[in-house]
Design goal:
Elements lengths: L8 E5 L20 H13 L4 E4 L7 E2 L2 E2 L10 H9 L6 E7 L5 H14 L4 E6 L4 H4 L10 H19 L25 E4 L4 E4 L12 E4 L4 H10 L2 E2 L6 H13 L12 E2 L2 E2 L1 E3 L3 H15 L2 H12 L30 H19 L3 H9 L4 E3 L1 H13 L5 E5 L8 H6 L1 H6 L13 H4 L14
Parallel strand pairs: 1-2, 1-15, 2-5, 5-6, 6-9, 9-10, 10-11, 12-15, 13-14
Antiparallel strand pairs: 3-4, 7-8
Keywords: Flavoprotein, FMN, Monooxygenase, Oxidoreductase
Protein name: NtaA/DmoA family FMN-dependent monooxygenase
Family: Belongs to the NtaA/SnaA/DszA monooxygenase family.
C-alpha cells in the first residue's frame, strides 16, 4: 500500500527588515509604500501560499551614529499593513510579528481578534520576545529582561491571550428576537488572571473570531523557545534549513507536543529559506554568488563584524582575514544584547571556525553565515528538494524569503509552484471560505494543558 502524499505548506516573508534585502538592485522598491505590500500579497495569493508574513522592527538600526541603509525608508506598523491587505486579498493568510515584551495581552489580543474578523479568519500572530535594551530604550520600562524572564512573560502572555479569545461562546452574543435582550449563554466569560507578569480582570470585547482564535506563530530556538513553541505555537518559523538539522529540530519539538496534550498535526514547522534559480545548475550557482555579493558588500561585511566585536574595525580589509583582536563585551553596546558575553563568544567562535577551516576572507565568511542560499538550482531541483524535506518529515514546508522588495517572490511563484503541483504535493486552488487554520491543516484550537514542569 502506498504512503499518502504529505502536502507542502508555504509562507511568504516580506523582505525589508533583514539583511537579505538588496536595495541596490534596479528592481528594488519601497518598504513603506502600500503598492509594495499589495504586489507581494497578490503574488503570494496567486502562488496559493498559506500566508504572507511581515517582520516588525521597533527601532531604526544605527551604526556609529548613522541609520542603517535597510531602515532609511522606515518601518511601518505591522497591524495597519495587514488590515489594509485584508481588503485587497481573499484567501491568503495574514501573519504579523508582534512582541510579548513591549505589548500588553488584552490590547494585542483585541487587535488580532479584530483583524481575524476583518479578514474572514485569516489572521496570525508571530509572537516574539524582543529582549534587548536596543529596543527597550524606546519604551518606558527600558532595559531588557533576562532570557528566562522574557520567555516566562511570553508564556504567560500567550496563555492569557488564548483565555481572552476563548472567553466567548462559539456562537457569539445572541439577542432575544422579541425583547432584544442579550441571552445569558452568549455573554463572554469573565477572565480573571493573576500571575508574575500580569494581573487582569476582564470581559473581552471582541467576539470569537471565524477560526476560533488567530493562529500563533513562533521563532524561538533555545530550550525555552522550543518549550514555548510546543506549548503555544501552531507554526514555528525556524532557522534549521540543512536536511539533517531540520529533521532533528522537527523530531525534538514535535516530540514535546504530547506533554501539552497535542498531536503532530497541531504544529507546522516552516523554516526560513532563500533561493537562487537558474536554467542550469551552473547558472543558478553563479546567480547565487551574484546575489550574495550584493547582499554583503564590503562595507556591510565590516559593519556586521563591528556589530559583533563592538569595536571600530574600519581599518580591516574586507578581503583579508578576521580581526585578531578580542571583542569588547562591555555593557554599553550598540546592540544592547542580553547575556552579551556568551552570545559574542559563540558567534565569534562560529565565524573563526568557518574562516580558518576554509581560508575565507571577512567578506566571504559573512556571506557564508548570512547569505548562503538554501536552495540553489533549476526550478525542478528546488521543487524536488522542497518535496523531499516534507515527505521525509524534516519540515512541513517553508517560509520563502526573497532578496528584492517587492518582487522577490515572483520567480518562485511562477517557476517552482507549478512543479510542486505536478508532484501532487501542493494545492491547485483555494477552497472558498477557508480560514488560515484550514489552509495550514490545523485542528481546532487546543485547550490549555498544564504539562509536567
Amino acid at each position: 500500500m502506498s504512503r499518502s502524499v504529505r502536502q507542502v505548506h508555504l509562507a511568504a516573508h516580506f523582505p525589508g527588515v533583514n539583511n537579505t534585502t538588496v536595495w541596490t538592485d534596479p528592481a528594488a522598491g519601497s518598504q513603506i509604500d502600500f503598492s509594495s505590500f499589495e504586489h507581494f500579497a497578490r503574488t503570494a495569493e496567486r502562488g496559493l501560499f498559506d500566508y504572507v508574513f511581515l517582520a516588525e522592527g521597533l527601532r531604526l538600526r544605527e551604526h556609529n551614529g548613522r541609520v542603517h541603509e535597510l531602515d532609511v525608508l522606515g518601518r511601518p506598523n505591522t497591524l495597519a499593513i495587514l488590515a489594509a491587505l485584508a481588503g485587497i486579498t481573499e484567501h491568503v493568510g495574514l501573519v504579523g510579528t508582534l512582541t510579548t515584551t513591549f505589548n500588553e495581552p488584552y490590547e494585542l489580543a483585541r487587535q488580532l481578534a479584530t483583524l481575524d474578523h476583518l479578514s474572514g479568519g485569516r489572521a496570525g500572530w508571530n509572537a516574539v520576545t524582543s529582549s534587548d535594551a536596543f529596543h527597550g530604550a524606546n519604551f518606558r520600562r527600558g532595559g531588557f529582561l533576562d532570557h528566562a524572564d522574557r520567555y516566562e512573560r511570553a508564556r504567560e502572555f500567550a496563555a492569557l491571550a488564548k483565555d481572552l479569545w476563548d472567553s466567548w461562546p462559539a456562537d457569539g452574543v445572541r439577542a432575544d428576537a422579541a425583547t432584544g435582550e442579550f441571552l445569558g449563554d452568549g455573554v463572554p466569560s469573565r477572565v480573571r488572571h493573576q500571575g508574575p507578569q500580569f494581573d487582569v480582570d476582564a470581559l473581552f470585547d471582541v467576539p470569537r473570531s471565524p477560526q476560533g482564535r488567530p493562529v500563533i506563530v513562533q521563532a524561538g530556538d533555545s530550550a525555552d523557545g522550543r518549550r514555548f513553541g510546543a506549548e503555544h505555537a501552531e507554526v514555528i518559523f525556524s532557522l534549521h534549513t540543512g536536511f539533517d538539522d531540520a529533521r532533528a529540530f522537527y523530531d525534538d519539538v514535535k516530540g514535546q507536543l504530547p506533554a501539552w496534550g497535542r498531536t503532530e498535526d497541531s504544529l507546522k514547522i516552516l523554516p526560513a529559506v532563500t533561493f537562487a534559480i537558474g536554467d542550469t545548475p551552473a547558472e543558478a550557482t553563479e546567480r547565487s554568488r551574484e546575489i550574495a555579493l550584493a547582499q554583503v558588500r564590503p562595507e556591510i561585511a565590516i559593519r556586521y563584524l563591528e556589530g559583533v566585536w563592538n569595536r571600530d574595525l574600519s581599518q580591516y580589509d574586507p578581503d583579508g582575514p578576521l580581526p585578531d583582536i578580542e571583542p569588547d563585551t562591555g555593557a554599553a553596546t550598540a546592540q544592547g544584547w542580553a547575556n552579551r558575553h556568551a552570545a559574542v563568544g559563540k558567534r565569534i567562535g562560529a565565524l573563526r571556525e568557518v574562516s580558518e577551516t576554509e581560508g575565507l576572507s571577512i567578506r566571504d565568511t559573512v556571506i557564508r553565515l548570512t547569505a548562503n542560499h538554501t536552495f540553489v538550482g533549476t526550478p525542478g531541483h528546488i521543487a524536488a528538494e522542497i518535496d523531499r524535506y516534507v515527505q521525509e518529515r524534516a519540515t512541513d514546508g517553508f517560509t520563502v524569503v526573497g532578496h528584492v522588495t517587492p518582487h522577490g517572490l515572483d520567480e518562485f511563484a511562477e517557476k517552482v509552484v507549478p512543479l510542486l503541483q505536478e508532484r501532487g504535493s501542493y494545492r491547485e486552488s483555494y477552497e472558498d471560505g477557508a480560514t488560515l487554520r484550514d489552509l495550514l491543516g490545523l485542528p481546532a484550537p487546543h485547550p490549555a494543558v498544564v504539562a509536567a514542569r
